[in-house]
């Protein structure tokens, strides 16, 4: 029994480590060496939700279930689903990334800059927490850096799979909070890769 628990733990660690490995797709991360400031851009085009055909099907399912319980809850859910992006996910990524660098050696911001760092979320799984059973939120994302004046001039592009978010010692009942922690983890992981491989 003890061996089984150890094996399960090792598999979990291995899966998590693999999920957070940078998969370089275009350009070279070393080309980012001298860039100090990036303008942030976030893209959710064609984002996939596990177990659903598309985001629209996911929203319909969640909204219908909430409307059955209380009128208006469906629309409130849809509004918060989209509002959480600029209000929670984006600030969480920016904050998490910026605090990794001493004396603001490298920074990301919403204001204009010569270079843009674009986060394209390709998978978004909100996870769940119903008290006795919970599952982390997860995202897949592609990070692309290009000259702001010329999006076709890509310096680097790479992706991460199954970046997990959790927090509050397991008391993360709000899906927006769980997902925001995915973006904090993504920022932390990319900042480490950038520091290790390019700076």
Topology, please?
Blueprint: H1 2-19, E1 23-27, E2 37-43, H2 55-69, H3 73-98, E3 107-109, E4 115-125, E5 128-129, E6 134-135, E7 137-147, E8 150-165, H4 175-197
Parallel strand pairs: 2-3, 2-4
Antiparallel strand pairs: 1-8, 4-7, 5-6, 7-8
Helix pairs in contact: 2-3, 3-4
Keywords for this structure?
41% helix; 6-stranded mixed β-sheet; 29% strand; 199 residues; disordered N terminus; alpha/beta; 4 helices; elongated; single chain
Report what the structure shows:
By secondary structure, this protein is an alpha/beta fold. It has four helices and eight strands. It has helices at residues 2-19, 55-69, 73-98, 175-197, and strands at residues 23-27, 37-43, 107-109, 115-125, 128-129, 134-135, 137-147, 150-165. Helix content is 41%, strand content 29%. The strands form two sheets. It has a six-stranded mixed β-sheet with strand order 1-8-7-4-2-3. The model is unreliable at 1-18 (pLDDT under 50). The protein has one domain.
Give the domain tally.
1
Number of helices: 4
Strand order of the main beta sheet, please?
1-8-7-4-2-3
Tell how many strands the DSSP assignment holds. 8
Task: Describe the main β-sheet briefly.
Answer: 6 strands, mixed
Report the structural category. alpha/beta
Q: CA-to-CA gap between the ends?
A: 46 Å
- Overall morphology: elongated
N-to-C SSE series? HEEHHEEEEEEH
Beta-strand percent range: 25-35%
**Helix fraction by DSSP (H/I, runs of at least 4):** 40-55%
Low-pLDDT ranges: 1-18
CA-based gyration radius = 18 Å
Mean pLDDT: 89
Protein name: DUF4468 domain-containing protein
Signal peptide: 1-19
Keywords: Signal
Organism: Pricia antarctica
């Amino acid at each position: 029994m003890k061996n089984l628990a150890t094996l399960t733990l090792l598999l979990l660690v291995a899966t998590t480590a693999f999920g957070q490995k940078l998969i370089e797709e275009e350009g070279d991360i070393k080309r980012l060496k001298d860039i100090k400031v990036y303008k942030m851009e976030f893209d959710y085009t064609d984002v996939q939700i596990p177990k659903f055909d598309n985001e629209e099907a996911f929203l319909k399912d969640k909204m219908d279930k909430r409307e059955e319980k209380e009128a208006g809850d469906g629309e409130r859910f849809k509004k918060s689903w989209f509002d959480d992006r600029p209000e929670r996910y984006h600030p969480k990524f920016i904050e998490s990334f910026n605090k990794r660098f001493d004396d603001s050696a490298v920074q990301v911001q919403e204001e204009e800059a010569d270079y843009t760092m674009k986060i394209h979320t390709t998978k978004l799984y909100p996870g769940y927490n119903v008290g006795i059973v919970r599952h982390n939120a997860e995202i897949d994302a592609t990070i692309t850096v290009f000259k702001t004046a010329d999006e076709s001039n890509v310096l680097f592009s790479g992706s991460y799979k199954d970046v997990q978010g959790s927090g509050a010692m397991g008391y993360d009942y709000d899906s927006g909070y769980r997902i925001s922690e995915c973006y904090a983890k993504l920022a932390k992981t990319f900042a480490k890769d950038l520091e290790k491989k390019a700076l």
